[in-house]
Amino acid sequence: MSIVCRDKPITRDELFTYTNGRFLVDEDRQFARRYRKFNLDALCNIAAAAGESTSRIIAIEKLEGGFSKALLMKKEDGGELIAKVPCRIAGPAFLTTASEVGTLEYIRKYTSIPVPRVFSWSPHDSNSVGAEYIVMEKAIGIPLFERWGKMAEIEKLQLIKNLTQLEAQLSAISFPAYGGLYLRADADRLKHQDLGGNLDEQCPFCIGPSPDRSFDVDGAADLPTENELINNGPWDSLSDFGISIAKRELSRIASQFADNQSMAHRGSPQEQIHLLEITISLMRMLDSHPLLTQLAQPTLWHTDLHMGNIFVAPDNNSQITALIDVQSLSVLPLFLQARWPVFLQPPREYTRGLVQPVLPDDFDSLDEEDKVAALRDWTQAKMAKAYEVSTFIENRLAYNAMNVLRVFRELFIRTGETSDVGVVPLRECLIEVFQNWSNLGIPGRCPYSFSQEDIDAHKQQFAEYEEWNEVQQLAQESLDTDAEGWVAPQLDFVRKQHQNKELLSMYIARMEGKKSPEEVMRIWPFPE
């Protein structure tokens, strides 16, 4: 049996290790979180019997992602299928596996959205494979990233329209609670709420705990742990969901080491706890907001639609033949779900609404480099606008949810970042709510207040936070990486290390007289 990765032969042991890139910092830990050993022969035997025919596996191609081992398995009779084994970084493996199966099966049963068929799975590791796994159909078609650059604009516009029509099927289904989507047969050990009623009285699905790894406070556990502070769902109301996020952050803060509080914008643990307690009092009031509750209907959504997760027909670039990678997707409030797909994100200078994107007024006087950048942003803005307009026409509910007041969306996002990023972004959000309370439509009085002295002190801290955030973005964009320092396998890692060192030296020189080299090192995301 041949085993390859990116067209190069690899050993069996290399199937278990992470080979889809390197990391500029904390590499040993990152590799350890993505290591997963399993019984390959047992997995091959299961795959051989799966699908349309029984035929032994003769070749494996490793298609590794950030959170799973994904293997393209080729049968002797020419058949192909995908086997997935979750890494520990994905979150509790039971929830990750069972919810992915439940989501795929639900979409296939109740929508016409094309997703792969599941042939075999086990959400437990007490099996012959020695790991949780899913064996599924190989996606039909060609990944969009192989076609997008060659597509005519009219083909792109038609694909965008087709995508919004598929998404409209998701927003048309309102679930009774927030959480993960499971087959009832897999959720007997979990707290869950059965589905049924209007859809199907014999519906084999239920809403259970969220599989999102942000709720995986105990990274070693496969099933939810008994932590009275942590409620990972299902949740019956918007306020319950928001309060659970805040309590999850309180639990994390209680277990953090002192050196995790080193940045000024993080604030002290006491400050973090105080702001989260304020946030809980605010979350309790959201269920009485008439418009917000309408746009908070529990909705399933694909929140990671990049061009690698969309497949199109070989003879029709606009026809979507498969959407893949539903791992860890949840049923959540629609206004937190609806968004531009990754590859259609608007550029920074983008105007929402029925406004046609245009080139800058001074375009003709720009130098060549700036013209290229302006044309790139204009092209991206046109695609983003096409998605926005098509969503308005095909999926009005999602369009309205995308246009919920930004501060409500920020409230949930910033609350969920408190233990990691700190108090300043959350405080900025809470101050905005306090100052604009009368215009936000929440019945009653604001449950907290900030003095002018508090606000003035915060402005200085927020300026420092923005400077820190700007450095993070500068480093990530310049090095073509992410917050973890991931470097794609096709890039020269040693060169990226050298570039990181050069960028850091340049920034130290730029900050001379303002910050010491030690202070710069503290805010640089990838210190040596």
Architecture per CATH nomenclature, i.e. the level-2 architecture of the domain at 2-144: 2-Layer Sandwich
The helix content is 40-55%
Distance between the termini: 42 Å
Number of strands: 17
Would you identify the CATH H-level superfamily of the domain at 2-144?
Phosphorylase Kinase, domain 1
Q: What is the name of the CATH topology of the domain at 2-144?
A: Phosphorylase Kinase, domain 1
Mean pLDDT: 93
Q: Which regions contain 5 or more consecutive residues with pLDDT less than 50?
A: 219-226
Strand order of the largest sheet: 2-1-4-5-6-8-7
Query: How can the largest sheet be summarized?
Result: 7 strands, mixed
Estimated share of beta-strand residues: 5-15%
Structural class: alpha+beta
What top-tier CATH class of the domain at 2-144 fits best? Answer: Alpha Beta
Total helical elements:
17
Could you tell me the radius of gyration in angstroms?
24 Å
- The rough form would be described as globular
Subcellular location: Mitochondrion
Keywords: Mitochondrion, Transit peptide
Family: Belongs to the AIM9 family.
Domain Aminoglycoside phosphotransferase: 60-326
